[in-house]
Amino acid sequence: MGFLRFVSRIASFWRSEQRALGLWVWCKNLFVPMYGQHDFTGRLISFFVRLVQIIFRGLVMVFWIIIGLILMLIWLALPLAIVIATAYQFLAI
Question: Is this model's pTM higher than 0.85 or not?
């Protein structure tokens, strides 16, 4: 039950980070011109500014996903490491 609760908290953290980064809002508004600039230059600048923001925010989100997955693997591996360390101590004496 502890691992499922841990996974639930990691997933909740990922959702809150996605909301904090606003990644889906940036993706949804990729082709919407900023500041009401409907000319070609305004649309082009808006597109590239938003594209850079999406790439940066996406990389931050990937970072948090990787950290969460590493923490899950550590959570799963820790009991096995404790058993192996205990067995090693008993066999080494």
Answer: no
